[in-house]
């Protein structure tokens, strides 16, 4: 036990595995940022569709949202990368597939964030806009959306953190992000303890500051 | 200016308006009074289609609201509305609140719109608040901004839904002053109010509503001093 503990301080992995963490982290971040950004666009569209009085538009959005929230992201990645690409004869790279899965998956959750944000804006705001003669689009754009977006920031930040952690499952489609690279490193060295501790810290170094920033922003928006 | 014929409004099974007939002439100030829940707000909101009309007709400035071809946004831009809870846009400065409608609806250029907005703010006595945000204003100031915002659209009619009911008593006067000035300038106004003093002084006509119908209407001095309907009598006696 205590022998093992000394390993914690003198392991050669710290220097050997660090380049893999660093390299994987870059891909993790790229896939997360690009994916969540596209997910925000998708989520905004489907979130607004969820608010539509038109039953078909509402229905389409509901099916999309529930289908993606109701299946594991791992299954979505397998389905898209192996299933769909095979079916339509389109060979996604692992990065493309990873970004697409994050976008579609986060998009479904963000759609609900958007719907909640827009619904939280007092109906009187819409009425004030409409009663001046603004169209519903103008009212949304200039009056409701800016207020809704402010309230969406904390849950969007949360979704970012969730999606960031979700990228670790892309090891199954051989996307060379942090988890994948460390698994490879471990399988070549045969020594998992310290490398996986490093992997944990690789995520924490992004998520913890994100949460701290988020909490600060939340507090500022509250005032 | 406004003609209402046999207006009905239901929310599902609940019949809120049950056949309203009313006329408002140009430059007339009509005050609507009545117990809470009698349908005053719903009536006012039907006048600019914030509520869909169940049956009947509303004509404003020669245009039928119920006509499927009517450009409802254009019509609304000529009908100013002031709400009980102000409904100012909290994320914009006072000046932006007032200039937004003219810019986006009437296509007025920003500079021009802001100049006119500033003038409107002077008019309601808040010229120095242009750069402030609504959150920093008192209720009375908020409501005066809301009036300026509606006026900036150059409306032909102004609708007020209990504009002073959410205000501390000491702030009511300022808002009523602004409304009186407006009435004196010849603005056509429909005012739902509990301010009987205002109705008596400024109203050309007072309408008493109860349970979704107009029970009685007439000149303020007649309706207040010599009400014919027994519901009107009961309502007025409770106020004294
Ligand atoms: N959106 C709505 N849905 C259902 N019922 C409503 C709605 N708006 C108003 N009502 C009902 O209509 C009645 C009249 O309301 P309202 O016009 O606000 O009265 P007033 O302004 O005279 O107090 C009330 O009984 C109220 O509950
Ligand atoms: Mg009311």
From TrEMBL, chain A:
<dbReference type="GO" id="GO:0022857">
    <property type="term" value="F:transmembrane transporter activity"/>
</dbReference>
<dbReference type="InterPro" id="IPR035906">
    <property type="entry name" value="MetI-like_sf"/>
</dbReference>
<dbReference type="Pfam" id="PF00528">
    <property type="entry name" value="BPD_transp_1"/>
</dbReference>
<dbReference type="InterPro" id="IPR000515">
    <property type="entry name" value="MetI-like"/>
</dbReference>
<keyword id="KW-0472">Membrane</keyword>
<feature type="transmembrane region" description="Helical">
    <location>
        <begin position="193"/>
        <end position="214"/>
    </location>
</feature>
<feature type="transmembrane region" description="Helical">
    <location>
        <begin position="88"/>
        <end position="111"/>
    </location>
</feature>
<dbReference type="InterPro" id="IPR043429">
    <property type="entry name" value="ArtM/GltK/GlnP/TcyL/YhdX-like"/>
</dbReference>
<dbReference type="InterPro" id="IPR010065">
    <property type="entry name" value="AA_ABC_transptr_permease_3TM"/>
</dbReference>
<feature type="transmembrane region" description="Helical">
    <location>
        <begin position="160"/>
        <end position="181"/>
    </location>
</feature>
<keyword id="KW-0029">Amino-acid transport</keyword>
<dbReference type="GO" id="GO:0043190">
    <property type="term" value="C:ATP-binding cassette (ABC) transporter complex"/>
</dbReference>
<feature type="transmembrane region" description="Helical">
    <location>
        <begin position="20"/>
        <end position="49"/>
    </location>
</feature>
<feature type="domain" description="ABC transmembrane type-1">
    <location>
        <begin position="25"/>
        <end position="217"/>
    </location>
</feature>
<keyword id="KW-0813">Transport</keyword>
<keyword id="KW-1003">Cell membrane</keyword>
<dbReference type="GO" id="GO:0006865">
    <property type="term" value="P:amino acid transport"/>
</dbReference>
<keyword id="KW-1133">Transmembrane helix</keyword>
<keyword id="KW-0812">Transmembrane</keyword>
<comment type="similarity">
    <text>Belongs to the binding-protein-dependent transport system permease family. HisMQ subfamily.</text>
</comment>
<protein>
    <submittedName>
        <fullName>Nickel transporter</fullName>
    </submittedName>
</protein>
<feature type="transmembrane region" description="Helical">
    <location>
        <begin position="56"/>
        <end position="82"/>
    </location>
</feature>
UniProtKB/TrEMBL annotation, chain B:
<dbReference type="InterPro" id="IPR027417">
    <property type="entry name" value="P-loop_NTPase"/>
</dbReference>
<dbReference type="InterPro" id="IPR003593">
    <property type="entry name" value="AAA+_ATPase"/>
</dbReference>
<dbReference type="Pfam" id="PF00005">
    <property type="entry name" value="ABC_tran"/>
</dbReference>
<keyword id="KW-0813">Transport</keyword>
<keyword id="KW-0547">Nucleotide-binding</keyword>
<dbReference type="InterPro" id="IPR017871">
    <property type="entry name" value="ABC_transporter-like_CS"/>
</dbReference>
<dbReference type="GO" id="GO:0015424">
    <property type="term" value="F:ABC-type amino acid transporter activity"/>
</dbReference>
<feature type="domain" description="ABC transporter">
    <location>
        <begin position="2"/>
        <end position="236"/>
    </location>
</feature>
<keyword id="KW-0067">ATP-binding</keyword>
<dbReference type="InterPro" id="IPR030679">
    <property type="entry name" value="ABC_ATPase_HisP-typ"/>
</dbReference>
<dbReference type="InterPro" id="IPR003439">
    <property type="entry name" value="ABC_transporter-like_ATP-bd"/>
</dbReference>
<protein>
    <submittedName>
        <fullName>Peptide ABC transporter ATP-binding protein</fullName>
    </submittedName>
</protein>
<dbReference type="GO" id="GO:0016887">
    <property type="term" value="F:ATP hydrolysis activity"/>
</dbReference>
<dbReference type="GO" id="GO:0005524">
    <property type="term" value="F:ATP binding"/>
</dbReference>
<dbReference type="InterPro" id="IPR050086">
    <property type="entry name" value="MetN_ABC_transporter-like"/>
</dbReference>
């Amino acid at each position: 036990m205590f022998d093992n503990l000394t390993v914690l301080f003198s392991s050669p992995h710290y220097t050997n595995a660090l380049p893999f963490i660093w390299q994987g982290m870059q891909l993790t971040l790229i896939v997360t940022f690009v994916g969540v950004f596209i997910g925000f666009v998708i989520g905004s569209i489907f979130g607004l569709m969820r608010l539509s009085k038109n039953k078909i538009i509402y229905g389409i959005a509901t099916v999309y949202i529930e289908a993606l929230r109701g299946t594991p992201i791992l299954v979505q990645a397998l389905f898209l990368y192996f299933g769909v690409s095979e079916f339509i004869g389109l060979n996604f790279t692992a990065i493309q597939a990873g970004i697409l899965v994050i976008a579609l998956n986060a998009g479904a959750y963000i759609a609900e964030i958007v719907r909640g944000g827009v619904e939280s804006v007092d109906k009187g705001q819409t009425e004030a806009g409409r009663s001046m003669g603004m169209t519903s689009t103008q009212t949304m754009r200039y009056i409701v959306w800016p207020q809704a977006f402010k309230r969406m920031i904390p849950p969007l930040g949360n979704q970012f953190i969730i999606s960031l952690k979700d990228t670790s499952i892309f090891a199954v489609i051989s996307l060379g992000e942090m988890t994948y690279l460390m698994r490879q490193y471990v399988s070549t060295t045969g020594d998992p303890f310290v490398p996986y501790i490093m992997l944990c810290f690789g995520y924490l170094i992004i998520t913890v500051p994100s949460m701290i920033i988020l909490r600060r922003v939340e507090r500022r928006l509250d005032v | 200016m406004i003609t209402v014929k046999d207006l009905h409004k239901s929310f599902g099974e609940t019949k809120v308006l049950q056949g309203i007939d009313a006329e408002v002439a140009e430059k007339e100030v009509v005050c609507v009074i009545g117990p809470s829940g009698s349908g005053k707000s719903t009536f006012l909101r039907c006048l600019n289609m914030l509520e869909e009309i169940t049956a009947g007709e509303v004509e404003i400035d020669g245009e039928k609201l119920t006509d499927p071809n009517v450009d409802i946004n254009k019509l609304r831009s000529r009908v100013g509305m002031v709400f009980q809870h102000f409904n100012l846009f909290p994320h914009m400065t006072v000046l932006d609140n007032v200039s937004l409608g003219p810019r986006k609806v009437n296509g007025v250029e920003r500079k021009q719109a802001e100049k006119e907005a500033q003038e409107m703010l002077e008019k309601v006595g808040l010229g120095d608040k242009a750069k402030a945000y609504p959150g920093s204003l008192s209720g009375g100031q908020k409501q005066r901004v809301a009036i300026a915002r509606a006026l900036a659209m150059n409306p032909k009619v102004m609708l007020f839904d209990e504009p002073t009911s959410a205000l501390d008593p000491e702030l009511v006067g300022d808002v009523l002053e602004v409304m009186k000035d407006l009435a004196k300038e010849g603005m056509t106004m429909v005012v739902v109010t509990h301010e009987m003093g205002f109705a008596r002084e400024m109203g050309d006509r007072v309408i008493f509503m109860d349970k979704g119908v107009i029970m009685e209407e007439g000149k303020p001095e007649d309706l207040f001093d010599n009400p014919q309907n027994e519901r009107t009598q009961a309502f007025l006696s409770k106020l004294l």
